Each structure stands twice: as structure tokens, then as C-alpha cells.
Amino acid sequence: DAGITQSPRHKVTETGTPVTLRCHQTENHRYMYWYRQDPGHGLRLIHYSYGVKDTDKGEVSDGYSVSRSKTEDFLLTLESATSSQTSVYFCAISRTGEVYEQYFGPGTRLTVT
Amino acid sequence: AQKITQTQPGMFVQEKEAVTLDCTYDTSDPSYGLFWYKQPSSGEMIFLIYQGSYDQQNATEGRYSLNFQKARKSANLVISASQLGDSAMYFCAMRRSNDYKLSFGAGTTVTVRA
Fold this sequence. Notes:
The structure holds two protein chains of two kinds.
Chain A: E1 4-7, E2 10-13, E3 19-25, E4 32-38, E5 42-51, E6 54-57, E7 64-70, E8 73-78, E9 87-94, E10 102-104, E11 108-112
Parallel strand pairs in A: 2-11
Antiparallel strand pairs in A: 1-3, 3-8, 4-5, 4-9, 5-6, 7-8, 9-10, 9-11
Chain B: E1 3-5, E2 10-14, E3 19-21, E4 24-26, E5 32-39, E6 46-52, E7 60-61, E8 64-69, E9 74-79, E10 88-96, E11 103-104, E12 108-113
Parallel strand pairs in B: 2-12
Antiparallel strand pairs in B: 1-4, 3-9, 5-6, 5-10, 7-8, 8-9, 10-11, 10-12
């Protein structure tokens, strides 16, 4: 257990509305990530952060923005949700060391109607 | 981005038997890391095993072992003595040595039969 929580765990929203997902970690890890999981695609990286206010885009960043104002919180925002953003969203952290394995939060299931 | 290929969308295995999950990858980097994750039906992602590209021996973690064939760019996961609790989706992932991001394959669903 890497002390990662995500909120909300489930959300249904309408097309065009803004949505913010929160990832909170308790172990002061420097690296944090947001992924989306869709059938047939595995997990795809949306955005990641390598420190407070240091973020960068992943492979599927269009339509998403992130912010990290504190080490423990990494926010993912859908400025105007679309049906194609219906997915399960996972937050993750990297443990530093030799391996840098990632540990994941429980996920947020988002449905955009 | 690195490409990770898992060609088996689904597999069935009898309880107590071994099962091999295929993973091939494509990278030109000499140094990289390979990971396997398990996702049971409850949805959480569980880190299973890691193999570094320069590791001399294949990684093992309990009933999990990684059959690493560097020249063939394959990193197959072997689960020995399958248990009903091994029923899950399994993902192969890779990162480059100078990077912390992971690239994932599409996953393989394993169903263990009693």
C-alpha cells in the first residue's frame, strides 16, 4: 500500500461540463502520473509530474490538464468533458531507487453522458 | 513511445498448472526495465515483478518468474501452480533507464479453472 487515494471513485457527468479528479499521496513521492484505462489499450499515460509545479504531457494529453501545487496532490482536469473521455482513470507514483516501480491508486470510473 | 505487444487477449489454465503470458517489446535503448502488473476483477493494479535489461538472471518472485530473452525482445511471465486467485488481467510494461514513465501492453486475461 503506497498510501494513494483518488476522489471521487465514481462520477457521472454530462458532456461539456468540467471535471476534476484528485489524487492524494501520503509518502512524499516526487513522481506522479495520471493514466486512463480503456479496453484493448491497456493503460495510457495522460500527464505526469516530477515535482511541485513541474508537469509534462503523456501520449494522450489532448483535452486534459493537470496541476500540482503540493507534493501530495495531483489534480487532473477535463475542461469540457466529452463521451470519448469515459474511462477508468488511475493515478500512480514512482518509488525511487533502483527499479522505480509504480504503485497505483484504486482508480476513478468516469462516465460522460 | 516504446511499443509493448501482448498477443494473447485471453487464456484459460487449469488449477495447479503453469501458464506463460507472452510479452514482446520494441526499443532501441540499450538500458530499460520491464514490469508485470496484475489487475483482478476488483480493479486495483498490483506490481508483480521487475526485470532490468542488464540483469544476468531471470527475475523470480514466489510463483512468478520472468522468462527474459533479450535478443528476441521478449519478457514472458510464467505463473507456476496456478490458483483460482490468479484469475485476473495481466499487463506487461516497460520504461527506459533515463525515464520514469511506463508504456503498457494491452493486457492478457487469465482465467483459472478448478
